[in-house]
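Q: Two folds, back to back.
A: First:
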Amino acid sequence: MNSEKVYTVIGLMSGTSLDGIDAALIRTDGREFSEPLEFISVPYEPEMRDALRSCLGLSDDIDGRVRITENEMTVAHAAAVDWLLGKAGKDPVDIDLIGFHGQTIFHDPDHKFTWQIGNGPMLARLTGIDVVNDFRSADVEAGGQGAPFLPLYHQAKAAELDKPLAILNLGGVGNVTYLGAQGEILAFDTGPANALIDDWVKQSLGRDYDEGGLLAQNGQVHDDVVKGWMGNAYFDVKPPKSLDRDHWKVDEIKGMSAQDGAATLTQFTVQSVVRAFESLPQKPQACYVTGGGRKNAVMMAWLNDQLGLTGGVRSVDALGWDGDALEAEGFAYLAVRSRLGLPLSVPTTTGVPQDVTGGRFYSAVQD
């Protein structure tokens, strides 16, 4: 690929919250330039969500369910690409590349293993577009945490903003990117975000999430339970560091009302972020939040109150960014960097010993 060219790229993201597929179309050179063009979000059908949920925590495919689910998920991603192209008025020939994150089902960097399912060759064949996937494995194999993986995109997007600042992603798991005034970058997983809350609401009420934080707003935080969770050894580990979605066991909420459980889990997320900010080199002027958590008014208000930043805690949408699209855009950006042989991660973002590129390439022209 030409390092001076601007590429038209699709990024596909399916996060730990299992809500659906985010598909973003951008133009980028894989370096400083990135221009969003179009975005769609496609909710998973309940059956697809349940199938993916059944794969979480699996480190092998003894019964074949992972392969079946992977292929079904890949077909759903191909449909999302088709819908995105239709919305954007583009044809496959107009697109240089797809960045296909896939679905993380198991993440254990301490044993140099991470698994994002998604059939790259199938997606390339179905869409007629070259594909890059498996972004994280090279980092983990080199000794990195394999997450978080979008800090370099955050850095490019925030190049002109006043610093120091923090970009906080509240998806299924929380992670923060710190950007310093002298070009410093530090990133790590902060702790739980929406996954535990979503699972609790699903279990308690059959809903997918706590819309707007209304359950939490009407619940009572069990501070003793939150304090116990905050004693987890993870919070004493020096960053960079990362988490699997299912790291946390929160049996203490059993027997609580739906409202109290949601409030207690929401406060746990907030306290995790507050503790994480104690590890940043400097107190940020402001924190900009991306991911589904930015739509939880209660979580955002509690974060704003407890972080006490001069510029406050605000959605990245206040910057003119699309907080729903940011992760998908980021994997489009990383796909180009992969093809150019540029780093996808650096020591201060994943703890990898040296800058590492990564990703696997699959051509749409297959034998």
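A: Second:
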Amino acid sequence: MTAGLRPVDVSRSVDATDWAALADGLDAQGCALTPRLLDPEQCREIAELYDRAELFRSTVDMARHRFGSGTYRYFTHDLPPVVAALREALYPRLLVVARDWAARLGRPAPWPDDLQEWLARCHEAGQDRSAQILLRYQEGDWNALHRDVFGDLVFPLQVVIGLDEYGVDYTGGEFLLVEQRPRAQSRGTTVALRQGHGLVFTTRDRPVRTKRGWSAGAVRHGVSTVHSGHRRALGLVFHDAS
């Protein structure tokens, strides 16, 4: 067990989520908030892992790469227990939505019931690096609109969990989601990420009903400028990186 983290059963909080309502939210906006998944102490413990370099495979300076401003770190495959548990508990719930979306768009649904089997397929395809992210923003930092697509194998949903309290630990720094609607102008959505709550959102695109049936609405996400304080978040991606 990663030192400094308490063992935790996250399945109870994941199971307590109204997944039918969450799926409706995803259909309406491309993102939807969960109830609290982590308590404030767990959030603090995860945020403090950022300074333990041995837990991460790489660090990205967003300004250097013109991704925005701020830094994030990719965990190694040896994930802290609570991070691994969250990913395992969320995957089968999100899988229901992923398969439904694939059916609407007439696409294959290559995702098996078991997360580890899916990750093994990613590794066989050359996507064998962990994509779990710990993000840290300070005053003035922001994240450009982007997609977390790291290869041909993509899971269509991901989750970000706020580790600090919006309006208390930081201001600004809202989550941004911009959808390019088929044959229409883009639509933007902003979400204040609450501490310990997860935001489920679209990785790449999602089904949007049009006069011609279902079309794929392309989606990108980012973070608005942090006006004060510090904003830290845990990103859970359900495919690995090349």
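Q: And?
A: The chain has one domain: 11-236.
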